[in-house]
Amino acid sequence: MIDRYTRPEMGRLWSLENRFYAWLEVELAVCEAWTKLGRIPDKDMAVIRAKADFDLARILEIEERTKHDVIAFLTAVEEKVGPASRFVHLGCTSSDIVDTANALLLVRAGQMILADLDGLLAQLKAMARQYKGRLMMGRTHGIHAEPISFGLKLTGFYAEFTRHAERLRRAVEGVRVGKISGAVGGYAHLDPKVEEIACGILGLEVDPISTQIVQRDRYAAYFSALALLGGGIERLAVELRHLQRTEVLEVEEGFASGQKGSSAMPHKKNPISAENLAGLSRLLRGNALAAMESMALWHERDISHSSVERVIMPDSTILADYMLARMTGVLRGLRVVGENMDRNLAASHGLFYSQRVLLALVDSGMERQRAYELVQGLAMRCWDEKKYFPDAVRNDSLIGERLAPDMLDVLFDPSYYLRHEGLIMDRVFGGGQEA
């Protein structure tokens, strides 16, 4: 199922072979930098450029013996390059290559996820405009509160996902740093200009200070941004799940021809996509915690973070890519049941007008607590007796002494609840745009 929603390039990005190619990209950039500084002769650099490559099976074969992936990688490259390979990895430590390559991979993955976010935002924006004015019941604690529009509900999610996009952009920039500073970050066997030139070639910033590694608060911020994004997807998924409950049924996930909802009950159409997405968000949160726990390493570094990152880097980015694509698909196929929105508005007997009546009584000069008690008592009776609240208000003598019938007609106009809808949507989507 994941292949259906995840773009193939995200999976390829994290393939073992592509990981080694990212390492090779960094090694070549370092060699180019040394060449510019006169350390590597041009003729040797020409050979390195032409021949630098590796055979994946050969790396794995060597690693079986060395138990060190970077050494296995370098050995396989040396076999391809020949004598000029003596200049490869000059003055570097493994983390110079691995962490700088991680930056390339995390930035590229982040750019794909941001593109997916743009797709989800475009879908939410289109639907918010489509359902502007589509009145529905707003709920607090799961209980009827006051009307909103389905367009405004979607606008709120759009606004949230713009924040997720901004957080992720900042996090991507936070990991867009390389380090070619040697074994403990002091450039003992390197020239800082090598780092500057190599990072420039790779499109990275220089980490102003590193130990043997890039500090992992950068990674923690990145994976936290993905976890927050997952939380946003979960919030939207939970909303869709609640709205699809049989008693509510204001929206439905698409249900394909031939699809089955239950092995036992042929009638079932379940919100399975929303449920799947809610569950997957837990993995993103767990991986973010693992990234935070990788911040505190011994002295200039240990490798307790390494095993964690081999899992969470591909898993979290692939999951985020998948979740965004799947949620966008859910929204595209969503069935919005307007007649049930109308039915549910009527289900609480017009009680949502209670605050309008309360405020009108206060404006008429009645003390607020007295007005509250009067309206609440009337509302509770209507609920218990299943009577229409506006009719009960019209027939109440105390209210009739203060509020004229034509004023009550104004109070019981449901369009009142959407009079600022356009303003809110303009704030979110930008003024002057059709919303």
Write the layout of secondary structure elements.
Layout lengths: L1 H4 L2 H6 L2 H21 L5 H10 L4 H11 L2 H13 L12 H37 L4 E6 L2 E7 H26 L1 E2 L13 H11 L2 E2 L10 H28 L6 E2 L19 H22 L10 H29 L2 E2 L1 H10 L6 H10 L4 H18 L3 H6 L2 H4 L4 H7 L9 H9 L6
Parallel strand pairs: 3-4
Antiparallel strand pairs: 1-2, 5-6
Helix pairs in contact: 3-4, 3-7, 3-9, 5-6, 7-8, 7-12, 8-10, 8-19, 10-11, 10-12, 11-12, 14-15
Your description of this structure?
The chain is built from 19 helices and 6 strands. It is mostly helical and 435 residues long. The protein has 3 domains: 2-87, Fumarase/aspartase (N-terminal domain) (Fumarase C, Chain B, domain 1); 94-254 and 267-341, Fumarase C, Chain A, domain 2, CATH 1.20.200; 348-429, Orthogonal Bundle (Ribonucleotide Reductase Protein R1, domain 1), CATH 1.10.40.30. Helix 7 (94-130) runs parallel beside helix 12. It is elongated and about 100 Å long.
